[in-house]
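Readers of this paper often ask what the protein records in our data store actually look like. Such a record has a labelled line for the sequence and another for the backbone structure tokens. Nothing more is needed to write down the fold, since each code stands for a local backbone conformation. The remainder of this section carries one protein's record, kept here as part of the documentation.
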Amino acid sequence: MSDSRDPHAPKAHAPETESFDREINVRAIVVSGVALAVVCLVSALLMWWLLKGFEHYDEKRDVRLSPVELAHPQPPPPAPLLQSDPVTDMTEMREREERELNQAAWIDRQQGTVRLPVDDAIDIVAARGVAPEVVGGKLGAPMAAEENKGPKGQQGQQGQEGKKVP
């Protein structure tokens, strides 16, 4: 550690007594800013010119109406329109789908088919599992573990005939 009274100690850097060493190159910053502004302006003008060119190209290639079609424009379709208010229609459809997904309802009372909310159905399947005949898609289908029990590796028909799904 140097003592301030020591004549051999390094002197403090004082900006008023020595020439100031400039670290910021203002000229380079200004030139870069101007160059950036010029590049942005030129690219915006090029995009405008390109879009005008596309518009002109589309006008040239557009199908022109015949004089008869110009004299007799096509009337709007008759009522009822398919969708008079698409936003309301979408909102109503989403609400209806939410009700169907989250409320239980009968699908067919004679056969005992019920629509359950998805969360309840997942809980029921997780609690009791899925019957093997339901996995195969038809009642009485052979179970996967019993398929290979036939003599000499042949598959036997040892399904559970007549068993109803609980």
User: Anything to note?
Assistant: The helical segments are 26-61, 67-71, 86-102, 118-128, 132-136.
